[in-house]
Specification:
The protein is mainly α and 299 residues long. The chain has helices spanning 17-39, 47-69, 71-74, 91-109, 115-136, 167-189, 205-226, 232-271, and strands at residues 7-10, 13-16. The protein has one domain (7-269).
């Protein structure tokens, strides 16, 4: 079996499948998040320029983190630092650069969208995008496989000898599973037990859950299928995953206390009886005297 081609030619132009996959993934993420903003009643005219800056920050951050984690390779091949068409983008590096960039810009352009609510809206988009990106990115890039394997599901990848674990496919399945879980949680939060719509609740549950699940997934993937024991890059990825899990737990703990206070306030408002309507004195009958008792004329 031959490896999946990582590039093809259109006349003299060489096109890399990895780049096409990333472009399609970015398009999906933009379209899906814009749709979620509209569905929740937020304006979207600000989003396109902000999204372009987020893409740039994500690519630069992902590449910088990858290069730092593999300095022993790029120290002897400085020209390879800019060769992103061969792959080599760190998910955590992209997050570290893209999230602060997005937060700063959207708070300027869309102040009516609270930070917590924005993060709850975007985390399912990120998980769905990662699921697609694993299939259209690393699966089609140079040396995109995991550890060598003799199992029937092993695949051949350009730049790697023998069958390899199809880790991008595994990760796509994991990311999509996390996405489904987050959407189910979101739908449960949006409804009271009686089926009526619930609004105004504290954000953070979707974000915290996504951080925990993705942190666990990414650390285990690196430890079991991708990393090399004692390798700096592998250790950094696993540490970053563990920190993401800890951060998600902190978010959920803080959100739980806010939920308790919000529910207490909500139930108190529901239990407060509505004020009785003001009563007015009946109008006097037609032809009746309007003088007060004791003020009538003499007989």
């Amino acid at each position: 079996m031959r490896p999946v081609p990582v590039a093809f030619h259109i006349g003299p132009l060489q096109v890399h499948t990895y780049g096409i996959g990333l472009a399609l993934t970015f398009w999906f993420g933009y379209t899906y998040f814009e749709r979620r903003l509209k569905k929740n009643g937020y304006p979207v005219d600000w989003f396109l320029p902000v999204f372009l800056w987020i893409i740039l920050a994500a690519i630069v951050g992902a590449r910088v983190m990858h290069v730092l984690a593999n300095l022993n390779v790029y120290w002897h091949d400085p020209a390879g630092i800019i060769a992103i068409w061969h792959g080599g983008l760190s998910s955590f590096g992209g997050i570290l650069a893209a999230v602060p960039t997005g937060v700063v810009l959207f708070r300027r352009r869309c102040p009516e969208l609270a930070l917590g609510r924005a993060l709850d809206l975007v985390i399912p988009v990120l998980m769905a995008s990662w699921a697609i990106g694993r299939l259209l990115g690393p699966q089609l890039m140079y040396a995109g496989g995991g550890h060598p394997t003799t199992q029937w599901f092993g695949m051949y990848y350009a730049g790697q000898v023998g069958r390899r674990l199809p880790v991008p496919i595994f990760q796509a399945m994991e990311d999509f599973s996390v996405y489904v879980i987050l959407i189910l949680i979101e739908r449960a939060l949006d409804r009271w037990p009686d089926g009526t719509r619930r609004t105004g609740y504290p954000p953070g549950i979707v974000l915290g859950t996504g951080m925990i699940l993705w942190g666990i997934e990414r650390s285990l993937d690196e430890h079991l299928w991708l990393g090399e024991d004692g390798g700096l890059g592998s250790d950094l990825v696993q540490i970053a995953g563990a920190l993401l899990v800890v951060g998600g737990i902190i978010v959920l703990v803080r959100t739980r206390s806010r939920w308790r206070e919000w529910l207490r306030t909500h139930h108190a408002l529901q239990a407060t009886p509505a004020p009785a309507p003001a009563t007015t004195a009946p109008a006097p009958a037609s032809g009746a005297s309007e003088t007060a008792p004791g003020e009538g004329g003499s007989s």
